[in-house]
């Protein structure tokens, strides 16, 4: 692989190419695809958490004027594959979680579809359900692997002996809440089954990967992939929940096949998304740290308890970042799951790293407090020479640089370490720090094609732009790889008619697709030199990574927290993130990615929690009135900086993924700042006023 | 039950026969095929559906279309044309100053909340110019359009990508561009 050295477009803060269409609102998202005579699909959801549908009376619904079809387990087509039980919808009458789809109405208008859905009478044979995650359950089990394919447990040395011998220890339990991705665009699909010939299915779907969605849907319906086309030029946010197709996509396709030749529109409501579109499992993290008086870690342990669903296993890799973050001769990490009668958890921005850098990073702050040591210095003291566990050298690791740069910018050196001693009016003031990390991932398969069309260079790849900037950044990469001005490069993405691209997940997009584009450009240049004729074309395939190196991005997050002495209200007037993430392709869109992630981390720290009532299995706060995400006025000063980092090993661009690292560590930095402000350690997210109020009286 | 109404949308009269249960949002999206007003929650909780009706920002998902017979509705797509009508000098492809400021400040990512943010900003600047106070307005003295005012007044529009830190400067930039030094409202950074 040729490392790109002569750069013109890469590194420039070009405005995003999709900007004008998005500010006008003319960019077309899945549901909005212009289609003649479309029908509307409205799902019906179970109102019990476990049992069987004993009766489903659809008479009144079917009699309603404008109803086209009613899909039930009795009428829906048998799917070719029911292996993925989340997707095996309307195949039987069993109910595995509250909110599961038990029927759907197809109608001429959305109003009629909704009206008819409400007319369906359901009787249940209800069974006892179990929806409560607790660490003391006696049925916790060890999954075979954790997401996506990490060992469930790891052990090095002897943690128990090292803890017993340690001069200073911390032993605490930390917990993170159940979170819902909540992209602003609901999960939505337009679907058309054309019965001509062997039939063909077109899905205009809001997805982070058109090719992976095609592969899944083709398998579920027993179709050749050539019979399925998936189109998605714009994604209204995903944050992982659109990384894999959920049941709504299958339901839209089922409806389309039930009414051949007529296009269907199906958008989940915001409320339906809380049961049907994935979420992040709550986690309970038992952390132990042991250290010498000088701060050198001698033991590091995290034992994670989290939930999965009985219908489909998902094991979040919460303990994984603790395996490589700091040096320690003795280390143990474990994951245990409770399989509950709940919807399947799934990917949400930085699965593993996001929750898994909360407990350990607050524990590090608690250790620094006990040692009487600065928390920045404690982290620097435990910097490993090589990646713990694998023993591989880091392709680049600049955590120390991020901590030092952040300290200087934030004014950390003037910090008085004592908690609860700074008062500004009615507010107690504190500051906190935490580290961030995220792996550099490259997917095994992606192909790009570059073609000369007139005086333009056209790059085609089925990639996705979730707001990440792909429309713009792929053009910058193609331009430099071809050695042509970026203004002459067009990008076409988001359609299975273009070459195969991997999912936009695990911050792997730029590394994977960008590498394919560079390979295509290399082939193009070697074939056509500097005089490519009109129609000249070459393709390139992403190559495997250099596995001699451990590859990760790093960062340091600094937070200022204010705690109101009368009400316990917590505000965060200042957040600073400093990152080392390789070469930044586009500083303008990169900054948005970083601060967007940090703001979502702030949201996790202070606001977000899905309240699952164990009596009903229902997320009771299933809308934006009750599931609080940061609003504009919750964000004050927020700043992202990055270090210049030259890493020739990660990929031809020298870039590391940046879509997820911003959310990693933010909540810990805020919790640490809240402790510094008011002296209360909040180990259980979110940091709401009831958790600090008792100490303020 | 169906009813006939005429709504002026982005400058053009649109005659519709609609189900009386239809919201203004669904009328715009599902009957007229417009893509600019977005559906994020359908409950007035996210702001993605914001349009101007009679010059005021409203949540189109909370308004029944039948109540809009004769109303003048402007979506983000129609904002640039509105400016052209008023000033008479704008050309095709031009954007409203708020839209240009959103691009300049990278005040968007996925783009789904963006048209609602843009319309909300236009409506909000008009409210400010009329002297309407907000929770961030001090009790005494002339209101200043600063970061806190903009953040407060834009908090009805959620952005999960969290472009807030760029939306605030974008709105201030647009306000400075459109009001100019001689106008009434004092704009502060």
TrEMBL record, chain A:
GO terms for molecular function: iron ion binding; oxidoreductase activity. Residues 24-128 form the Aldehyde oxidase/xanthine dehydrogenase a/b hammerhead domain. Transmembrane segments: none annotated. Keywords: Molybdenum, Oxidoreductase. It comes from Streptomyces antnestii. SUPFAM superfamilies: CO dehydrogenase molybdoprotein N-domain-like, Molybdenum cofactor-binding domain. This is Xanthine dehydrogenase family protein molybdopterin-binding subunit. InterPro entries: Ald_Oxase/Xan_DH_a/b (IPR000674), Ald_Oxase/Xan_DH_a/b_sf (IPR036856), Ald_Oxase/xanthine_DH-like (IPR016208), AldOxase/xan_DH_MoCoBD1 (IPR008274), AldOxase/xan_DH_MoCoBD2 (IPR046867), AldOxase/xan_DH_Mopterin-bd_sf (IPR037165). It comes from the Bacteria.
UniProtKB/TrEMBL annotation, chain B:
Pathway: Alkaloid degradation; nicotine degradation. This is 2Fe-2S iron-sulfur cluster binding domain-containing protein. It comes from Streptomyces antnestii. InterPro entries: 2Fe-2S-bd, 2Fe-2S-bd_dom_sf, 2Fe-2S_ferredoxin-like_sf, 2Fe-2S_ferredoxin-type, 2Fe2S_fd_BS, Aldehyde_Oxdr_Iron-Sulfur, Beta-grasp_dom_sf. The lineage of its organism: Bacteria, Bacillati, Actinomycetota, Actinomycetes, Kitasatosporales. GO terms for molecular function: 2 iron, 2 sulfur cluster binding; metal ion binding; oxidoreductase activity, acting on the aldehyde or oxo group of donors. Keywords: 2Fe-2S, Iron, Iron-sulfur, Metal-binding, Oxidoreductase. PANTHER family: OXIDOREDUCTASE WITH IRON-SULFUR SUBUNIT, OXIDOREDUCTASE, IRON-SULPHUR BINDING SUBUNIT-RELATED-RELATED. Pfam families: Fer2, Fer2_2. Residues 3-79 form the 2Fe-2S ferredoxin-type domain.
